[in-house]
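Running co-folding for flavin-adenine dinucleotide.
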Amino acid sequence: MERDRILVVVQKKGIGPGRPASIALENLKAASLLSRQGSGERVCACVLGSGVGEFAMDIAFYAEEVYVVDHPLLGHFQADLYACALEAVCRAVNPCTVLMGHRYENSEVGPKLSCKMGRDLITDCVKIEREKETGALLCTKPIYGGNATAVFALHDRPQMVTIRAKATDALEKGTAKGVIKTLDCALDPSMGLTESLGLVAGEDAVDLNQAEVIVAGGRGVKTEDDFETLKGLVAAFRRRFDKVELGASRAVVDAGLLPHSRQIGQTGEKVAPQLYIAIAISGSAQHMAGVTGAKKILTINKDADAAIFGASDYGVVGKYEDIVPAFIRKLEELS
Ligand code: FAD
């Protein structure tokens, strides 16, 4: 009997010929773990784009089969066209399970695909497992702003999920030597609702969900100059860690001090660093929804009763203006 297939939708990192996005490699790892738990399904990848031949060859080092739709209309991300191409791949490949990264493109494409396929989609999962007896996909996701966890069972194929960054580690290159299969797909140009003239890298390119250490500031950090103190702490950590980023609560972003790409929480990024340093952040449910994946939380707040202390592993009560410079001096002594 032919082996079933798990299909992982793979996207590129950033602009240009590109490397696979970290979240795609994590989902390929999630697929291979799922295959081991299940009946040894093939781990397959799906690559959509224009001129993506070389990229697909790279992905073949991670998956047994790489399904490619290479079409000029897929050159820039357009949700309707991508959903249409993905539907064509799903109908041709008939996978039991489709894994997508929980990132902004799939927040649009996922529901459209779910509607086209007439199947449920579970978004923002932090864990997926195969139930041996029934073959159901058990999808764990935080609910109520991260205050509770729910498990949803998907029975009907294709079982479709989006998975949060860092739910697993990344798959090593060379795990497979896959076959590339090119699929044709009739795409209607009228489905493209926007015309992209080109893509430019943002001035503030940031990958918060891959950061190992995040120094996040809240409303208590009032001005751009005040943020220089926090940037000093970021710089001190960067001497010891590779991926250190500055983050913020929504209050800071709403005040125009940092761009939305740095917002953490329910309507911002969901992060999973080794260390999350929350500075002058009170710990609203909406903010904490973004940090449930953090391994350790260190809080600096002048209010000893701030709710965030209840969710912190370490806490310092005091004004950050006094504490952060002392931290920086200590880190410099240690390095
Ligand atoms: P505050 O709650 O005002 O807290 C400031 C803290 O700084 C206080 O605890 C104070 O003691 C401390 N402080 C002040 N000065 C100092 C000092 N000098 N030194 C040390 N400590 C000091 N919020 C998010 O963050 N992310 C989201 O994604 C998000 N999404 C939302 C979605 C919806 C639908 C809604 C309604 C709200 C959302 N919010 C979100 C907003 C959220 O409810 C809070 O308003 C916000 O998180 C508060 O930010 P804060 O903790 O920085 O500010």
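Result summary
The mean pLDDT is 92.
Helices lie at 22-37, 53-59, 79-93, 104-117, 224-238, 250-254, 285-288, 320-334.
Job closed.
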